[in-house]
Write a structure and sequence with these properties.
Distance between the termini: 62 Å
Low-confidence stretches: none
Number of domains: 1
Number of strands: 5
Radius of gyration: 25 Å
Strand content: 5-15%
Mean pLDDT: 90
Number of helices: 5
Shape: elongated
Helix content: 55-70%
Length: 144
Amino acid sequence: MKRKLNDQVFARKFITWGVMISGIMVAVSLFVTIYYNPEVIVKRKFNELARTYYESYYYDKLVETIDEDKFQERMESYSQSGLQPVLLRQLLLYQNGKYSDYKEYFEQEDYVCDKNKTSATFFPVAPYGVRDYKVEFKFECGKK
């Protein structure tokens, strides 16, 4: 039996559309897996919360406690050792619980963080401005 030209064109179009739809489905599934992964959400929200805390509260309180003539020296020592770690519990409660709605990200149905062990440690870097710092996170999170 001879193949017709229309059969070959139809087969190519069918295969092309099948590959395109499969590729789109794989891309969407990867996006959902990465973006809605509880661990990724926790890390993203904790990073956001910690940076807001340092830039809008912690840095100002730190600067108030250091004499101007010793500022550079103290900040250099903090850049090596880091500031006192800030617990997740503290981040959720500061400014009269303004950020307590973030709690839902750390107490999910199937993924939970220990609020007394999950922490952020800030390391100021020169020239020691409000946005001049590095931060290290310690996560104590896991599935229920």
